[in-house]
Amino acid sequence: MTDTLIKVDLKQSPYENDMVHNRWHPDIPMVAWVKPGDDFRIETYDWTGGYIKNDNSADDVRDVDLSTVHFLSGPIGVEGCEPGDLLVVDLLDIGAKEDSLWGFNGFFSKQNGGGFLTEHFPHAQKSIWDFQGMFTHSRHIPGVKYAGLIHPGLIGCLPDPKLLESWNTREIGLIASEPNRVPPLANAPFAPTAHMGRLTGDARDKAAAEGARTVPPREHGGNCDIKDLSRGARVFFPVYVKGGGLSMGDLHFSQGDGEITFCGAIEMAGWLHIKVSVIKDGMAKYGVKNPIFKPSPITPNYKDYLIFEGISVDEQGKQLYLDVHVAYRQACLNAIEYLKKFGYSGAQAYSILGTAPTQGHISGVVDIPNACATLWLPTEIFDFDIMPSSTGPIRHLDGAIDMPISYDKT
Ligand code: ZN
């Protein structure tokens, strides 16, 4: 039987589990060592460490302390792995924990996290998704069901001191350019809620004050939230410290490109079965700065899409220059308006785009002044026909249940 190197108890606070951490720092001690060629299992909390509950209120999404995330399992050391190597990680399989066959999706309040469409959806909302084997559906969003594309939102190796310093310098500089912005431009190190794994004493306190937050993707990978980095994929990670220090978490049962809802995909607690090996001096040999990966041989077999275009002209009609962020936002807003014609609320439509295996493409970035982005919505995930026709959309979802909403406390 494959060894489980890290176990998590969902009834226990992640702060009480010393094989878990929520910051990136080179001094966080390895919790286990393996050899190249070994395969093993790792259990993880959901990214909030169990804060979001399987209920019909969005109060927890409104109130969650985002300085506590993400709770990662690790770091794992690999014998013989050294800075400059590539750590090869085979994601042999990934699943939900047996005692937790559900996940959540939501949008944060603009006052606490915000998100991609926070100007349009400024209040906390939540949907709960139940898993039946490889499929998922939500009691808060009728008419839609799809197969999971299970992946870790967050996985990567520990930074070395120089890389960590460059992260903090550039991100703190960005925050300083607009210090009062809500939501903020980035998240600075924050010691009070840091969980530094097995680090103790003064070394722990120093590292807690310096440790990089886990929110953005960076050179080491980290919180990339790539739906196609799924079970069956092989990933090649840059290595910066002796042993590599591989950590992971933020498992998603499914996610659309962009993870546009931010809280987040379909978030779950679960396990990964992985295998590691090492390519000596692989970073220089292959010119690798950020991770590269080979996708899984197995993906949900959705072939038919309705594709929404968006250009870099914002909601007020302002012309922007080749702005892909604005163009993708327009594509998503166009898809939401379309789905509302079938009786979905805007929130339900937004949640579908954030959780289903929708594809996002940068379709054109040269035709000045407009970038063109596209949002690919799989038609086969719906219980009804969503294609346009001369009869017009049938509103069979009118009056159906909506997603819970929680307004800010004033
Ligand atoms: Zn996530």
Features:
Jelly Rolls, 13-stranded mixed β-sheet, 2 domains, alpha+beta, 410 residues, six-stranded mixed β-sheet, binds zinc ion
Summarize this, please?
With 410 residues, the chain is an alpha+beta fold. It folds into 2 domains: 4-294, Jelly Rolls; 305-406, no CATH class. The chain has helices spanning 59-63, 161-176, 201-210, 282-286, 324-340, 346-355; strands spanning 4-6, 20-21, 32-34, 39-44, 72-78, 86-96, 102-107, 124-132, 135-138, 141-147, 151-157, 217-218, 221-222, 234-238, 244-252, 263-268, 270-279, 292-294, 305-311, 359-364, 372-378, 405-406.
User: C-alpha Rg, in Å?
Assistant: 21 Å
CATH-defined architecture of the largest domain: Sandwich
Percent strand equals 25-35%
- Class per helix and strand makeup: alpha+beta
**Intertermini distance:** 54 Å
* Shape summary: globular
Q: Could you name the CATH topology of the largest domain?
A: Jelly Rolls
What's the number of extended β-strand segments?
22
Helix residue percentage: 10-25%
Mean pLDDT: 96
Number of domains: 2
Q: What is the CATH class of the largest domain?
A: Mainly Beta
What does this structure look like?
- The chain is α+β, with helices and mostly antiparallel strands and 410 residues long.
- It has 2 domains: 4-294, Acetamidase/Formamidase-like domains (Jelly Rolls, Sandwich), CATH 2.60.120.580; 305-406, no CATH class.
- Helix content is 15%, strand content 30%.
- It has helices spanning 59-63, 161-176, 201-210, 282-286, 324-340, 346-355, and strands at 4-6, 20-21, 32-34, 39-44, 72-78, 86-96, 102-107, 124-132, 135-138, 141-147, 151-157, 217-218, 221-222, 234-238, 244-252, 263-268, 270-279, 292-294, 305-311, 359-364, 372-378, 405-406.
- Strands 2, 3, 5, 7, 8, 9, 10, 11, 12, 13, 15, 16 and 22 form a 13-stranded mixed sheet that branches. A 6-stranded mixed sheet has the order 1-4-17-6-14-18, with no helix packed on it. Strands 19-21-20 form a 3-stranded antiparallel sheet.
- A hairpin with a 7-residue loop joins strand 20 (359-364) and strand 21 (372-378).
- Bound molecules: zinc ion (ZN).
- Zinc ion binds at residues 47, 153, 250, 252, 264-265, 267.
- Residues 47, 153, 250, 252, 264-265, 267 line the site of zinc ion.
